[in-house]
Amino acid sequence: MRVRFLGAAQTVTGSMHLLEAPRATVLLDCGLFQGPRRETFDRNRNLPFDPRTLDAVVLSHAHIDHSGALPMLPSRGFHGTIFCTPATRDLCAVMLEDAAMVQEADARFLNKQIERGLLHGDPIEPLYGDNDVINMLETMIAVPYHRWFEVAHGVRARFLDAGHVLGSAIVELDVRDGATTKRVVFSGDVGRRSMPILRDPEIPERADLLLMESTYGDRVHPARQEMDAALADVVRRTVERGGKVIVPTFALERAQEIILSLKSLTLSGAIPTVPVIVDSPLAVKITEVFRMHPDCYDEELHRRLRADGSPFDFDSLRYVASPDESKRISADRSPMVILAGSGMCESGRVLHHLRVAVEETENTVVIVGFQAPHTLGRRLVEKRTKVRIFGVERDRRCDVVVLNGFSAHAGQDELVGLVRGMREKGGVGRIALVHGEPGPQRVLSQKLAAIGQEDILAPERGDALEL
Ligand SMILES: [Zn+2]
User: Fold this and answer.
1) Do 132 and 210 fall within a single domain?
2) How far, in Å, from the CA of 361 to the mean position of ligand 1?
3) CA dist 66 to 57, 69, 88, 99, 113, Å?
């Protein structure tokens, strides 16, 4: 048997790995690569495998860089089944519908630029539309955590809690090869311990091959508890000088966690009561999916539910769906906190808010998630003095604060902890580091070697590993 690394190899987006078992071919994740628009389109359009040859897909979680290419499969001859957890399926229904809309908007934007002669090349077709998403959903089967299920001939799998986003899973796969069975574990994205809302990541028993994410392989995150204080500090400071706080946020998980934080900070008086705006039709829909899945909550959230009612509502919080209201809010200069997507500031309503806010010194942009290279979000993290928004170069005078502790990804210590835990239980044969940039992967490899782990690789895109 063989594993081919087709995406998120020495980079963090486009998660996609092909398991070529003796009697079946199974794809692990089918994500979109995210980066500069044009390169992204070309790369995502050309799938690095033939969907007709796939028996099944096992999806770790609903983030677009893991699930976003799935709707391309049915129209390209895929006749298998996509397996994921129930919450992941529900999230995919809303997130991929939204992704189809973003595809169409992106294609329109690029085609306009091509028409005006600002870009060269052939006109661009969206990668998929609504119908493709619906066809894909018809091939999805949801399986709860902790149950072994048959994926394809000679391959069975089980989902464990990954603690990363609602429904996220670490996937254990048993692959039969003649008389022997090999255990492959795919970490998906690993979450953090003691985060609000979700249960902690579980430690799998053992693996002959562990495909492990390495996004923050070089960094230890501040404790989550310190983050509430840091967020309170930024909000207080900004409101005192009459500014707005803009939080570009992924609509999934981060948004709900920040809503939860702002709720407790407001209720406890740690921040002044100012309007908290969730300006994202997607975040509104996703929050609904969260309400439907108390089966994924941790004990702390169940406790808070009993004490303060719905975790995702409070008096000064407003969910905004209509574009007109969104425009009124960007024009309004009074102090407030705005959560809007996209998380890396590449598209979505956050761009309208940033366009108005970046040039004013009283405002603050709070970065709470990973920002891929070449995105506007990364440029803000780098505190560049000039940033381009909607094709216009603007002076960045607003403050930028990075709060890494809100990350939904395990830090270095937590990744090492996962491997240590597995070594104590049943052992880890080889490790293939995926979903990380080369720098963090090097540092993490050294840390893993220091606890005695051997056979650590960081495959490049296209590499194959025989097992
Ligand atoms: Zn993720």
Assistant:
1) yes
2) 33
3) 11, 8, 11, 12, 29
In tens, the pLDDT along 116-140 reads 988 888 888 899 999 999 999 999 9
304 alpha carbon – ligand 1 mean position (Å):
25
First-to-last alpha carbon distance for the chain, in angstroms, is: 6
Distance CA 214, CA 221 (A): 13
**143 CA to centre of ligand 1 in angstroms:** 19
Span from the CA of 184 to the centroid of ligand 1 (angstroms): 20
> pLDDT by residue (tens digit) across 143-183?
999 999 999 999 999 999 999 999 999 999 999 998 999 99
In angstroms, what is the span from residue 58 Cα to ligand 1's centroid? 15
Q: Examine the domain organization and report whether 149 and 261 are in the same domain.
A: no
**Domain CATH number, residue 193:** 3.60.15.10
Instruction: Print the domain residue range for 415.
Output: 2-219+408-466
Dist. CA 225 → ligand 1 center (Å): 21
- Find the 63 Cα to ligand 1 centroid distance in Å: 5
Expressed in angstroms and rounded, the spacing between residue 65 Cα and the centre of ligand 1 is 7
Pair type for strands 169-177 and 180-186: antiparallel
CA of 61 from ligand 1 middle (Å) equals 7
- Same domain? For 115 and 11 the reply is yes
Is the full-model pTM beyond 0.85?
Answer: yes
Q: Nearest to residue 69, comparing CAs of 100, 93, 39, 38?
A: 100
203, 310: one domain: no
| CA of residue 233 to ligand 1 center, whole Å | 28
Q: Give how many domains the chain has, as a whole number.
A: 2
405 alpha carbon to ligand 1 midpoint, in Å? 16
